Every structure is written in C-alpha cells, then in structure tokens.
Amino acid sequence: MKSILLRVAVFAAITLTFATLSLAEDRDTETKRVDNAANVLTDIMRTPDKGIPDGIMKSAVCVGVIPSMKKGGFIFGAEYGKGVASCHNANGWSAPAPVTIGGGTWGLQIGGEAVDVVFLVMNNKGMEDLLSSKFTLGANASVAAGPVGRQAEGDTDWKLKAEVLTYSRTRGIFAGLTLNGAVIAQDHDATTAFYGNDVSFRNILMGRVKAPTGSAPFLTALRQFSEQAQTAKVNQSHSQPVQH
Predict the structure, then answer these.
(1) How many other β-carbons are positioned within 10 Å of the β-carbon of residue 105?
(2) Could you give the CA distance from residue 237 to residue 136 in angstroms, rounded to a whole number?
(3) Sorting pLDDT into bands at 50, 70 and 90, what band is 6?
(4) Disulfide engineering: 218 pairs with which of 38, 51, 192, 200, CB 3.0-4.6 Å?
C-alpha cells in the first residue's frame, strides 16, 4: 500500500513539475510576442516619411500589431497570425490583449512571405466592435488600407471615416493593406498564458486589468509614438500660415 501511495505521489510531483514548466514556457512565448510587437511598432514609427501619418496615430483609439513569428507567423497563404492590441482610455493605454487574426481577402499576395501587420481602430464604434472579443473587418466594422507617410496627411479625411485602418510591412516595405473579411478575435490560450487566467477582452482593453510583467516594451512604444504624434500635429498647426 505504501509503495502504491509513493508511486502516486511521485507521479503527481512529476506531472506538476512538467505543468509548471509548460506554463512558464507558454508565458515566455507570449512575452516574446509582446516584445516583437513593440519592435515592429518602433521600427515603423521611426521612419515618419514612410510610416503611419501623425494625424492617424494621434486619432487612433486602439492599436494592434501582428508581428511575423519566424516561419509560424503571419503568412498570407495561411491567412493567420497572432499579436497584441491595446486601447486608449482615461488612464492611458491598456494592458496588451492577445489577439488572433485570420481569414479574409488580403490586398497583397506574396506566397509564403511572412509579414508584420498593424491595425488602428479609429473611433468608438470600431472600439466597441473590438471589445466584443470577435468581429469581422468589412462586416462588423468598415476597414480601409491606411495611408502612409507625411505626404498623406492632407488626403486622409475620407480614410478616417473607416473604423479600422490596416497596414503591412514585408521586405522592409511598409504600405496600406486591405484586410476585408478578416476576423480579429481574442486569443484565449495566449491570454491564459500571459495573465495566468482567461481574463475577458473587454476588461483588459478597458484598462480594468493591471498590465502583467513583460508588457512594458509595447506600452512604452505606444505612449512614445502617440505622444510624438500629438506634438507633431500641434507643431504643424502652429506652423501653418495665417489666412487673411
């Protein structure tokens, strides 16, 4: 009897050890994804002449980044990817919420080329769609390929009517991307790995959940570039000639 109990105890200890190691490994994976999303956003916003216009970044209420994850990342042929999103609220940018994006008809087709995808939610209606934890671009929310660079500033009024603007970067080229029909949803497995439990999408994006360890790079990038966009637009307005 003692021998059986001992075997059970040993088996339980081994199982617990492997489970703990697996959870730690899953969390490391999600932390790296957050880091990669921060790097993508930083690389894009450091090239203002070829990046997201300040006026659009300034107006975005939510920002999502789907970084290419080696060979298993966002590949056009697979039409699937994972990343994180954050929404701006009274307390600043929310903790990163793990998301998936898949399906739909892409505006570019590059075979098996991995790409980085950025989506910006431009108004409260789009934000409510995102908070629902699963919505379809072009059906639940209007979507358009986002304009690029400073030269696009004066020609963005009609584009700003879209609830979601989307972009892609591949081989160093950053451009607007059509993602009509793509489904954006909460990544429940990644949420559990990153937060320790399956926190609701709405609670994360509404700023009701404390940002876990590993969130800092992405949130720092968001704060930096949204503040940079705010400052750039103020300076631009002050530099405009006075009309008589």
Answers:
(1) 12
(2) 36
(3) low
(4) 38
Phi first, then psi: give them for residue 35, nearest 5 degrees: -60, -45
pLDDT at 119: 92
pTM of structure: 0.78
Q: Regarding beta strands 164-170 and 92-93, do their DSSP bridges make them parallel or antiparallel, or are they unpaired?
A: unpaired
d(CA 16, CA 70): 30
DSSP character string of 129-176: HHHTSEEEBTTTB-EEEPP-SGGGGGG-TTGGGSSEEEEEEETTEEEE
What is the separation, in whole angstroms, between the first and last Cα of the chain? 98
CA gap 165, 112 in Å, rounded: 23
CB 150 within 8 A of CB 48: yes
Contact 122, 61 (CB under 8 A): yes
Sign of CA dihedral 158, 90, 41, 36: negative
